[in-house]
Amino acid sequence: MPSNNRIAIVDYGVGNHQSVANALAFLGYRFVITHRPAEIDAAPALILPGVGAFGEAMDRVRDLGIGPLLVDQVQRGKPLLGICLGMQLLAETSEENGQHRGLGLLPARVVPIPPRAGIKVPQVGWNTVQAHRTDVLFSTTTADCAFYFDHSFHLACSPEYVAATVPYGGDLVAAVQRGNILGVQFHPEKSHNSGLRLFRSFFNYYRISS
Q1: CATH code, domain with 180
Q2: Do the strands 80-83 and 46-48 form a parallel or antiparallel pair, or are they unpaired?
Q3: Per residue in 154-197, pLDDT tens?
Q4: How many domains does the chain have?
Q5: d(Cα 127, Cα 148) in Å, to the nearest integer?
C-alpha cells in the first residue's frame, strides 16, 4: 500500500490542475501535481483532470509514457477520479476530431452531444445532476444538485456504469463508476460547495484523510 497520503493530481500538460489543487488545499488534503512514476505509485489516490481535445491529451499521455502506469495502478486497486476530459480519457475510443484510442479503462466511447432543438452545444454552465449511485461520489450531496459543465462531447456507456445523469436534450452521462474507476463530466473544482462535497465523499469512501 502507498506509504504517504499525498494525492496525485496527474499532470500530462493538458488540464486545470491548479483549480483542482486549490479545491484540495481548501479541504486540507495533501497532494502533489506530478507525472513522475514514483509519486504516482506512492499516492493513495489519483485525480486525472483535463480540458481540451481528446487526441491532443492522449498524445501527451503517450509522450510521457504514463498510460500503462495509470492502467497498472487502477488494476492494482488504486482509486482514480477522472474529471471532464480526464473522465473521457478512461474510455476505449473517441470520435472527437477523428478516431482516437483512450486508456481503455471503461468499456465506453466518447461521442458528440447530439444536436437537438432547444439546446446549445457545447453545454456550458450549471446544470442539475441526478445521482443514480450514492455510495462513493454522491454520498454527501443532495438528491438533485447542480454542477458546472463545459463540454461538446459526452461518454456513451452501459447503464451499469452510470453513477449520475444530466438532462441536456436527453439524459447524458454525468458520472461513471466501475469499481475503483470513477469519473465526472462536470468540473467539481468549479462547482462550489457541491464540488467540495463530492471530493470529500470520494476521499472519505477510500479512507484518505485530510
Answers
A1: 3.40.50.880
A2: parallel
A3: 999 999 999 999 999 999 999 999 999 999 999 999 999 999 99
A4: 1
A5: 7
pLDDT tens column, 41-53: 999 999 999 999 9
Active site residues: 84, 187, 189
Between the CA of residue 208 and those of 40, 167, 178, what are the distances in Å?
A: 15, 32, 19
2 in a domain, yes or no?
A: no
pTM: 0.95
- Residue in this structure with the C-alpha cell 492522449, named with its chain if needed: 58
Which of these, 8, 34, 90, lies nearest to 57 by C-alpha position? 90
Q: Which residue type sits at 57?
A: A
Q: What are phi and psi of 175, to 5 degrees?
A: -155, 150
**DSSP letter (8 states) at residue 118:** T
Q: Residues in the chain, how many? A: 210
Cα–Cα dist 167/108, whole Å: 19
